From TrEMBL:
InterPro entries: Stress/Tellurium_Resist (IPR051324), TerD (IPR003325). The keyword Thylakoid does not apply. Keywords: Tellurium resistance. The keyword Ribosomal protein does not apply. This is TerD family protein. It holds the Pfam family TerD. Residues 10-164 form the TerD domain.
Protein backbone atom coordinates (compact mmCIF):
# COMPACT_ATOMS: atom_id res chain seq x y z
CA UNK A 1 0.00 0.00 0.00
CA UNK A 2 1.26 3.48 -0.91
CA UNK A 3 1.19 5.88 2.06
CA UNK A 4 0.83 9.56 1.13
CA UNK A 5 1.68 12.37 3.55
CA UNK A 6 0.51 16.00 3.13
CA UNK A 7 1.91 17.39 -0.12
CA UNK A 8 2.34 14.00 -1.78
CA UNK A 9 0.39 12.95 -4.86
CA UNK A 10 -0.34 9.81 -6.87
CA UNK A 11 -1.79 9.02 -10.28
CA UNK A 12 -5.29 7.51 -10.35
CA UNK A 13 -5.46 4.48 -12.62
CA UNK A 14 -9.28 4.18 -12.52
CA UNK A 15 -11.98 6.81 -13.01
CA UNK A 16 -14.49 5.09 -10.73
CA UNK A 17 -13.63 4.39 -7.10
CA UNK A 18 -14.64 4.67 -3.46
CA UNK A 19 -13.02 7.23 -1.16
CA UNK A 20 -13.17 6.61 2.58
CA UNK A 21 -12.30 9.08 5.35
CA UNK A 22 -11.80 7.80 8.88
CA UNK A 23 -10.83 9.23 12.25
CA UNK A 24 -11.40 8.71 15.96
CA UNK A 25 -14.59 10.19 17.43
CA UNK A 26 -14.58 13.30 19.61
CA UNK A 27 -17.24 12.74 22.30
CA UNK A 28 -20.16 15.14 21.96
CA UNK A 29 -18.83 16.69 18.74
CA UNK A 30 -20.18 16.29 15.19
CA UNK A 31 -17.76 16.26 12.27
CA UNK A 32 -18.87 16.63 8.67
CA UNK A 33 -17.11 15.64 5.44
CA UNK A 34 -17.99 17.47 2.21
CA UNK A 35 -16.81 17.56 -1.40
CA UNK A 36 -16.58 20.66 -3.61
CA UNK A 37 -16.32 20.74 -7.41
CA UNK A 38 -14.06 23.64 -8.40
CA UNK A 39 -13.28 25.38 -11.68
CA UNK A 40 -9.83 26.58 -12.71
CA UNK A 41 -10.51 29.74 -10.66
CA UNK A 42 -10.81 27.65 -7.50
CA UNK A 43 -14.55 28.38 -7.14
CA UNK A 44 -17.78 26.45 -7.49
CA UNK A 45 -20.16 27.17 -10.40
CA UNK A 46 -23.16 27.13 -8.06
CA UNK A 47 -24.50 25.57 -4.88
CA UNK A 48 -25.00 22.33 -6.82
CA UNK A 49 -21.24 21.82 -6.73
CA UNK A 50 -21.21 21.04 -3.00
CA UNK A 51 -21.77 17.44 -1.88
CA UNK A 52 -22.60 17.28 1.84
CA UNK A 53 -25.13 15.92 4.37
CA UNK A 54 -27.94 18.03 2.84
CA UNK A 55 -27.10 17.24 -0.82
CA UNK A 56 -25.64 13.77 -1.15
CA UNK A 57 -25.70 13.40 -4.98
CA UNK A 58 -24.15 15.97 -7.33
CA UNK A 59 -23.02 16.23 -10.97
CA UNK A 60 -25.32 13.42 -12.19
CA UNK A 61 -23.81 11.00 -9.68
CA UNK A 62 -20.18 11.95 -10.26
CA UNK A 63 -19.83 12.44 -6.50
CA UNK A 64 -22.10 10.67 -4.01
CA UNK A 65 -21.89 10.83 -0.23
CA UNK A 66 -22.76 7.20 0.54
CA UNK A 67 -22.53 7.31 4.32
CA UNK A 68 -21.39 9.44 7.23
CA UNK A 69 -20.84 8.64 10.90
CA UNK A 70 -19.03 9.94 13.97
CA UNK A 71 -15.85 8.23 12.74
CA UNK A 72 -15.80 9.20 9.06
CA UNK A 73 -17.54 9.17 5.69
CA UNK A 74 -17.57 7.28 2.38
CA UNK A 75 -17.91 8.81 -1.10
CA UNK A 76 -18.48 7.09 -4.45
CA UNK A 77 -16.72 9.01 -7.21
CA UNK A 78 -17.01 8.57 -10.99
CA UNK A 79 -14.64 10.97 -12.73
CA UNK A 80 -16.01 10.08 -16.18
CA UNK A 81 -19.15 12.05 -15.24
CA UNK A 82 -17.32 15.23 -14.22
CA UNK A 83 -17.89 18.21 -16.52
CA UNK A 84 -14.83 19.53 -18.39
CA UNK A 85 -15.27 22.88 -16.62
CA UNK A 86 -14.29 21.22 -13.33
CA UNK A 87 -10.55 21.13 -12.57
CA UNK A 88 -10.60 19.52 -9.15
CA UNK A 89 -12.68 17.90 -6.44
CA UNK A 90 -11.72 19.03 -2.96
CA UNK A 91 -12.53 16.88 0.06
CA UNK A 92 -13.09 18.86 3.25
CA UNK A 93 -13.73 17.95 6.88
CA UNK A 94 -15.29 20.41 9.33
CA UNK A 95 -16.24 20.46 13.02
CA UNK A 96 -19.86 21.46 13.60
CA UNK A 97 -20.33 24.79 15.36
CA UNK A 98 -16.58 24.94 16.12
CA UNK A 99 -17.15 22.85 19.25
CA UNK A 100 -13.64 21.41 19.14
CA UNK A 101 -10.41 21.70 17.14
CA UNK A 102 -8.64 19.15 14.97
CA UNK A 103 -5.86 18.88 17.56
CA UNK A 104 -8.25 16.61 19.47
CA UNK A 105 -7.54 13.96 16.83
CA UNK A 106 -4.24 12.18 16.33
CA UNK A 107 -4.76 11.90 12.56
CA UNK A 108 -7.28 11.64 9.74
CA UNK A 109 -6.83 8.91 7.14
CA UNK A 110 -8.00 8.78 3.53
CA UNK A 111 -8.23 5.51 1.59
CA UNK A 112 -9.05 4.91 -2.08
CA UNK A 113 -10.52 1.58 -3.14
CA UNK A 114 -10.52 0.82 -6.85
CA UNK A 115 -7.23 2.58 -7.62
CA UNK A 116 -4.82 0.06 -6.23
CA UNK A 117 -4.01 0.65 -2.58
CA UNK A 118 -3.69 4.34 -1.78
CA UNK A 119 -3.80 5.71 1.74
CA UNK A 120 -3.32 9.29 2.90
CA UNK A 121 -2.37 10.13 6.48
CA UNK A 122 -2.81 13.65 7.91
CA UNK A 123 -1.34 14.21 11.40
CA UNK A 124 -3.51 16.56 13.48
CA UNK A 125 -1.56 17.04 16.72
CA UNK A 126 -1.43 20.72 17.65
CA UNK A 127 -4.01 21.91 15.11
CA UNK A 128 -6.32 24.68 16.38
CA UNK A 129 -8.45 24.96 13.23
CA UNK A 130 -12.02 23.69 12.80
CA UNK A 131 -11.98 23.13 9.02
CA UNK A 132 -9.47 21.01 7.14
CA UNK A 133 -8.85 20.44 3.43
CA UNK A 134 -8.05 16.74 3.37
CA UNK A 135 -7.31 16.07 -0.30
CA UNK A 136 -7.69 17.20 -3.89
CA UNK A 137 -8.58 15.03 -6.87
CA UNK A 138 -7.39 17.07 -9.85
CA UNK A 139 -6.83 16.91 -13.59
CA UNK A 140 -3.37 16.69 -15.11
CA UNK A 141 -3.98 16.80 -18.86
CA UNK A 142 -6.13 13.76 -19.60
CA UNK A 143 -5.20 12.09 -16.32
CA UNK A 144 -6.48 12.47 -12.77
CA UNK A 145 -4.36 12.52 -9.64
CA UNK A 146 -4.87 12.57 -5.88
CA UNK A 147 -2.99 14.96 -3.63
CA UNK A 148 -3.12 14.84 0.18
CA UNK A 149 -3.31 18.40 1.55
CA UNK A 150 -3.96 18.85 5.30
CA UNK A 151 -4.50 22.65 5.22
CA UNK A 152 -6.49 24.08 8.14
CA UNK A 153 -8.99 26.96 8.26
CA UNK A 154 -10.82 28.70 11.06
CA UNK A 155 -14.61 28.94 11.55
CA UNK A 156 -15.64 25.53 10.23
CA UNK A 157 -17.93 24.81 7.29
CA UNK A 158 -19.27 28.36 6.74
CA UNK A 159 -15.77 29.79 6.28
CA UNK A 160 -14.52 27.11 3.94
CA UNK A 161 -17.76 27.12 1.90
CA UNK A 162 -17.41 30.88 1.46
CA UNK A 163 -13.76 30.44 0.47
CA UNK A 164 -14.93 28.23 -2.41
CA UNK A 165 -17.63 30.72 -3.43
CA UNK A 166 -20.74 29.54 -1.56
CA UNK A 167 -22.55 32.10 0.53
CA UNK A 168 -23.75 30.45 3.73
CA UNK A 169 -26.97 31.63 5.34
CA UNK A 170 -27.58 31.20 9.07
CA UNK A 171 -31.13 31.08 10.44
CA UNK A 172 -32.23 34.26 12.21
CA UNK A 173 -34.88 32.62 14.40
CA UNK A 174 -34.26 29.95 17.07
CA UNK A 175 -34.35 26.49 15.57
CA UNK A 176 -34.29 22.95 16.86
CA UNK A 177 -31.03 21.10 17.42
CA UNK A 178 -31.54 19.09 14.22
CA UNK A 179 -31.75 22.31 12.16
CA UNK A 180 -28.72 24.14 13.51
CA UNK A 181 -26.20 23.15 10.83
CA UNK A 182 -25.39 25.91 8.33
CA UNK A 183 -27.41 25.80 5.11
CA UNK A 184 -25.72 26.65 1.78
CA UNK A 185 -27.71 29.35 0.03
CA UNK A 186 -26.88 31.26 -3.12
CA UNK A 187 -23.58 30.42 -4.79
CA UNK A 188 -21.39 33.27 -5.92
CA UNK A 189 -19.89 33.45 -9.38
CA UNK A 190 -16.56 31.71 -9.94
CA UNK A 191 -14.61 34.94 -10.08
CA UNK A 192 -15.86 36.21 -6.69
CA UNK A 193 -13.10 36.72 -4.13
CA UNK A 194 -13.25 35.04 -0.69
CA UNK A 195 -15.30 36.93 1.88
CA UNK A 196 -13.57 38.56 4.82
CA UNK A 197 -14.85 36.08 7.39
CA UNK A 198 -12.47 33.44 6.04
CA UNK A 199 -9.68 35.49 7.63
CA UNK A 200 -7.04 34.80 5.02
CA UNK A 201 -4.61 37.72 5.13
CA UNK A 202 -1.78 37.34 2.62
CA UNK A 203 1.42 39.37 2.22
CA UNK A 204 3.94 38.61 -0.52
CA UNK A 205 7.67 39.28 -0.13
CA UNK A 206 9.61 39.47 -3.41
CA UNK A 207 12.85 41.35 -2.67
CA UNK A 208 15.91 40.30 -0.71
CA UNK A 209 15.73 41.54 2.86
CA UNK A 210 11.99 42.29 2.81
CA UNK A 211 10.25 41.26 6.02
CA UNK A 212 6.85 40.97 7.66
CA UNK A 213 5.39 39.86 10.99
CA UNK A 214 2.60 37.54 12.08
CA UNK A 215 1.22 38.10 15.57
CA UNK A 216 1.08 35.17 18.00
CA UNK A 217 -0.72 37.09 20.75
CA UNK A 218 -3.78 34.87 20.83
CA UNK A 219 -5.09 31.97 22.88
CA UNK A 220 -5.54 28.57 21.23
CA UNK A 221 -3.43 29.60 18.27
CA UNK A 222 -2.86 27.04 15.54
CA UNK A 223 0.27 25.45 14.18
CA UNK A 224 2.78 27.50 12.20
CA UNK A 225 3.01 25.84 8.77
CA UNK A 226 5.89 26.42 6.36
CA UNK A 227 5.00 25.19 2.88
CA UNK A 228 7.49 25.02 0.02
CA UNK A 229 6.17 24.47 -3.51
CA UNK A 230 7.87 24.10 -6.87
CA UNK A 231 6.94 23.13 -10.44
CA UNK A 232 8.34 21.04 -13.26
CA UNK A 233 10.83 23.10 -15.26
CA UNK A 234 9.49 21.79 -18.58
CA UNK A 235 12.67 20.00 -19.65
CA UNK A 236 10.71 16.81 -20.50
CA UNK A 237 12.51 14.86 -17.80
CA UNK A 238 10.66 13.34 -14.85
CA UNK A 239 13.70 12.42 -12.77
CA UNK A 240 15.03 15.84 -11.80
CA UNK A 241 12.08 17.73 -10.36
CA UNK A 242 12.75 16.72 -6.77
CA UNK A 243 13.51 19.45 -4.24
CA UNK A 244 13.94 18.97 -0.50
CA UNK A 245 12.69 21.48 2.05
CA UNK A 246 15.22 21.71 4.89
CA UNK A 247 15.59 23.86 8.00
CA UNK A 248 18.26 24.80 10.48
CA UNK A 249 16.86 25.75 13.90
CA UNK A 250 18.83 28.16 16.10
CA UNK A 251 18.05 27.21 19.70
CA UNK A 252 18.15 29.73 22.58
CA UNK A 253 21.41 28.13 23.78
CA UNK A 254 23.12 29.02 20.49
CA UNK A 255 23.20 25.46 19.13
CA UNK A 256 21.71 24.46 15.79
CA UNK A 257 19.27 21.60 15.14
CA UNK A 258 18.80 20.02 11.70
CA UNK A 259 15.28 19.35 10.31
CA UNK A 260 14.53 17.53 7.07
CA UNK A 261 12.57 14.55 5.76
CA UNK A 262 15.41 12.34 6.99
CA UNK A 263 15.42 14.08 10.40
CA UNK A 264 11.68 14.79 10.86
CA UNK A 265 11.61 16.12 14.43
CA UNK A 266 8.56 16.31 16.71
CA UNK A 267 5.90 18.82 17.77
CA UNK A 268 5.82 17.49 21.33
CA UNK A 269 9.53 17.37 22.13
CA UNK A 270 12.62 19.28 21.02
CA UNK A 271 12.87 20.89 18.51
CA UNK A 272 9.03 21.29 18.63
CA UNK A 273 8.86 21.25 14.84
CA UNK A 274 8.32 18.41 12.38
CA UNK A 275 8.85 17.70 8.69
CA UNK A 276 5.85 15.95 7.10
CA UNK A 277 7.82 13.89 4.61
CA UNK A 278 9.63 13.78 1.28
CA UNK A 279 7.84 14.55 -2.00
CA UNK A 280 9.78 13.55 -5.10
CA UNK A 281 7.91 14.91 -8.12
CA UNK A 282 6.27 18.00 -9.54
CA UNK A 283 4.47 19.13 -12.69
CA UNK A 284 3.36 22.53 -13.90
CA UNK A 285 -0.24 21.59 -13.08
CA UNK A 286 0.56 19.84 -9.80
CA UNK A 287 3.35 21.54 -7.85
CA UNK A 288 5.61 19.53 -5.60
CA UNK A 289 4.98 20.40 -1.97
CA UNK A 290 6.85 19.78 1.27
CA UNK A 291 5.65 21.02 4.65
CA UNK A 292 7.23 21.77 8.01
CA UNK A 293 4.94 22.38 10.99
CA UNK A 294 6.04 24.33 14.07
CA UNK A 295 4.53 24.35 17.54
CA UNK A 296 3.44 27.98 18.13
CA UNK A 297 4.81 27.67 21.68
CA UNK A 298 8.28 26.68 20.44
CA UNK A 299 10.06 29.64 22.07
CA UNK A 300 8.30 29.00 25.39
CA UNK A 301 9.07 25.28 25.25
CA UNK A 302 12.74 25.84 24.40
CA UNK A 303 13.20 28.72 26.83
CA UNK A 304 13.84 31.69 24.57
CA UNK A 305 13.83 33.21 21.10
CA UNK A 306 14.14 30.69 18.26
CA UNK A 307 15.41 31.30 14.72
CA UNK A 308 14.87 29.10 11.68
CA UNK A 309 16.46 29.20 8.23
CA UNK A 310 14.61 27.44 5.39
CA UNK A 311 16.14 26.27 2.15
CA UNK A 312 15.37 24.04 -0.81
CA UNK A 313 17.99 21.60 -2.02
CA UNK A 314 18.51 19.63 -5.23
CA UNK A 315 21.01 16.79 -4.96
CA UNK A 316 23.78 16.31 -7.51
CA UNK A 317 22.09 13.01 -8.43
CA UNK A 318 19.21 15.03 -9.94
CA UNK A 319 21.52 16.11 -12.74
CA UNK A 320 22.41 19.61 -13.97
CA UNK A 321 18.99 21.08 -13.18
CA UNK A 322 18.74 24.70 -12.13
CA UNK A 323 16.74 25.08 -8.94
CA UNK A 324 15.71 28.52 -10.18
CA UNK A 325 13.88 26.90 -13.11
CA UNK A 326 11.64 25.02 -10.63
CA UNK A 327 10.37 28.37 -9.26
CA UNK A 328 10.41 27.53 -5.54
CA UNK A 329 8.01 29.52 -3.33
CA UNK A 330 7.61 29.34 0.44
CA UNK A 331 4.51 30.31 2.43
CA UNK A 332 4.28 30.74 6.19
CA UNK A 333 0.76 30.28 7.55
CA UNK A 334 -0.78 30.74 10.99
CA UNK A 335 -4.44 31.28 11.91
CA UNK A 336 -5.44 32.68 8.53
CA UNK A 337 -2.36 34.88 8.12
CA UNK A 338 -0.07 34.06 5.20
CA UNK A 339 3.33 35.53 4.35
CA UNK A 340 4.67 34.32 1.01
CA UNK A 341 8.35 34.42 0.06
CA UNK A 342 8.30 34.55 -3.73
CA UNK A 343 11.75 35.57 -4.90
CA UNK A 344 12.86 35.22 -8.52
CA UNK A 345 16.18 33.43 -8.16
CA UNK A 346 18.75 34.13 -10.89
CA UNK A 347 18.74 31.52 -13.62
CA UNK A 348 21.04 30.70 -16.50
CA UNK A 349 24.76 30.37 -15.85
CA UNK A 350 24.41 32.04 -12.45
CA UNK A 351 22.47 29.01 -11.24
CA UNK A 352 24.64 26.26 -12.74
CA UNK A 353 25.77 23.75 -10.13
CA UNK A 354 23.95 25.49 -7.27
CA UNK A 355 22.43 22.88 -4.94
CA UNK A 356 20.87 25.08 -2.24
CA UNK A 357 18.69 28.20 -2.28
CA UNK A 358 17.80 29.88 1.01
CA UNK A 359 14.22 31.10 0.72
CA UNK A 360 13.80 32.81 4.07
CA UNK A 361 14.14 32.92 7.84
CA UNK A 362 11.72 32.97 10.75
CA UNK A 363 12.40 34.53 14.14
CA UNK A 364 9.90 33.46 16.82
CA UNK A 365 9.81 35.12 20.22
CA UNK A 366 6.47 33.93 21.60
CA UNK A 367 4.62 37.10 20.64
CA UNK A 368 5.23 37.18 16.90
CA UNK A 369 6.83 35.49 13.90
CA UNK A 370 9.26 37.69 11.98
CA UNK A 371 9.57 36.52 8.38
CA UNK A 372 12.46 37.70 6.19
CA UNK A 373 13.08 36.80 2.56
CA UNK A 374 16.68 35.76 1.94
CA UNK A 375 17.41 34.76 -1.66
CA UNK A 376 20.96 33.59 -0.91
CA UNK A 377 22.49 30.62 -2.72
CA UNK A 378 25.28 28.21 -1.98
CA UNK A 379 28.49 28.37 -3.95
CA UNK A 380 28.41 26.27 -7.16
CA UNK A 381 29.32 22.67 -6.38
CA UNK A 382 29.10 23.19 -2.62
CA UNK A 383 27.13 20.90 -0.29
CA UNK A 384 27.53 23.28 2.68
CA UNK A 385 24.28 23.95 4.53
CA UNK A 386 22.71 27.27 5.61
CA UNK A 387 23.66 28.47 9.10
CA UNK A 388 22.24 31.36 11.13
CA UNK A 389 23.54 33.52 13.94
CA UNK A 390 21.79 36.36 15.73
CA UNK A 391 23.65 39.64 15.25
CA UNK A 392 22.25 43.00 16.36
CA UNK A 393 18.83 41.41 16.68
CA UNK A 394 18.81 40.10 13.08
CA UNK A 395 19.30 36.53 11.88
CA UNK A 396 22.41 36.53 9.69
CA UNK A 397 22.61 33.72 7.12
CA UNK A 398 25.83 32.08 5.99
CA UNK A 399 26.82 28.74 4.48
CA UNK A 400 28.97 27.67 7.42
CA UNK A 401 26.96 24.53 8.15
CA UNK A 402 28.40 21.08 7.49
CA UNK A 403 26.91 18.99 4.64
CA UNK A 404 24.04 16.69 5.64
CA UNK A 405 22.65 14.03 3.33
CA UNK A 406 19.55 11.85 3.70
CA UNK A 407 21.76 9.22 5.29
CA UNK A 408 23.00 11.79 7.81
CA UNK A 409 26.65 12.69 8.36
CA UNK A 410 28.16 9.81 6.38
CA UNK A 411 31.87 9.43 5.67
CA UNK A 412 31.71 11.56 2.50
CA UNK A 413 29.83 14.32 4.32
CA UNK A 414 32.40 14.32 7.12
CA UNK A 415 35.27 14.49 4.63
CA UNK A 416 33.94 17.48 2.70
CA UNK A 417 32.66 19.20 5.83
CA UNK A 418 35.95 19.53 7.64
CA UNK A 419 36.07 22.90 9.41
CA UNK A 420 32.33 23.51 9.08
CA UNK A 421 29.89 23.92 11.97
CA UNK A 422 27.85 20.89 13.04
CA UNK A 423 24.27 20.31 14.17
CA UNK A 424 23.58 18.91 17.63
CA UNK A 425 21.30 16.12 16.36
CA UNK A 426 23.32 14.94 13.32
Amino acid sequence: MSILKPGANAKLSQLKFTLSISHAPIPGVEMDVSAFLLTAQGKVRGDGDMCFYGQTHIESGAVILDSASETGAVFSIDLSKVNQAIEKIVIVMTIHENRAVFGKLSEVTIELFGNGALRGEIPCAGMKETALILAEIYRRGEEWKLRVVGQGFENGLPAIAQYFGIEVATPEQPVSESEKKPIPAKAKQAETTPVKSVRLNKISLTKQGESSKISLQKENRGLIRVIATWVDNGDKRSDNDDLDLRAGILLPNGKMHWLAASHPGSLDSAPFARHLGDVRQATKNAPGTEIIEINPDISKRLGGQVGLVFSVYSAISNGPVSIASLKPVMSIENDGNVVECNYTFPGGKAANGVYTYVIGTLDIDGESISVRLSGLTSQPGSEDTPWIERKAGILEVSFDGAPVFKSGRNLFARMIGVGKKGYENV
